[in-house]
Design brief:
- The chain is α/β, with parallel strands linked by helices and 209 residues long.
- It has seven helices and eight strands, in the order E-E-E-H-H-E-H-E-H-E-H-H-E-H-E.
- An eight-stranded mixed beta sheet has the order 3-1-2-4-5-6-7-8.
- It starts with 10 loop residues before the first strand and ends with a strand.
Length: 209
């Protein structure tokens, strides 16, 4: 499932950000940003993830050796690693192998669009502790205009996660996107998410750079 040519145990990572406090989940976290994304969002902040030659090649072992320096912080604060990108759920084998290395005490989260094959979600659900889902907008027309993709996979994957685990492990981000959605659209997205069973919603304003 890893699309990099270097092998199933390696992935391109274009950013590692340490000592993030309550930004990407509970406690102190390290954000690991993978290259590769199925979306082409108009205001993407991480366009480096679109370029296959950006980043450094890591194996799960080399990543673990680099990030384990903060293990004491992770254990003391119930923190750990947040995989982002790009789209981390494209890196199924890498994340599975990393979990075997770090053990069960680190919290592993994915900041994801969920616009990935269902098998990826199902496989990694046994590995991850939680999700930060960037939903963009629940309206399929707005979603496609902004991302260039359909959101049917997003909604079906989210519904499956809600039905097969604790909904409290899922935080859904609903942005106000200039020129793409209005306040009423955001409210409709929130209402629909709540009806699906989402218990944690982060509503925020995109800042265009």
């Amino acid at each position: 499932m890893n699309t990099n040519k270097a092998g199933s145990d390696a992935a391109l990572i274009f950013g590692i950000s340490r000592h993030r406090l309550t930004t990407d989940g509970e406690g102190v976290t390290t954000l690991v940003a993978f290259s590769g994304c199925p979306l082409r969002c108009k205001y993407c902040l991480n366009k480096a993830s679109w370029e296959p030659d950006k980043g450094r090649l890591y194996t799960p072992e080399t990543l673990f050796e680099e990030v384990k320096i903060d293990q004491l912080y992770f254990l003391a604060t119930k923190g750990g690693i947040t995989f982002g990108g790009g789209e981390p759920l494209l890196q199924v084998e890498f994340i599975k192998e990393f979990r075997e290395l770090c053990g069960s005490q680190w919290h592993l989260l994915a900041e994801t669009s969920l616009n990935v094959p269902f098998e990826n979600v199902k496989t990694l659900d046994a590995v991850l502790d939680g999700y930060i889902v960037d939903i963009k907008d629940m309206n399929p027309e707005i979603y496609k205009a902004y991302t260039g993709k359909d959101n049917a996979l997003v909604l079906s994957n989210l519904q499956w996660l809600l039905q097969h685990g604790d909904p409290n492990r899922i935080m859904v981000r609903v942005p106000h996107i200039p020129d793409f959605n209005m306040d009423d659209d955001v409210e409709r997205s929130k209402e629909r998410l709540e009806k699906m069973g989402v218990t944690s919603i982060d509503e925020f304003q995109y800042i265009i750079r």
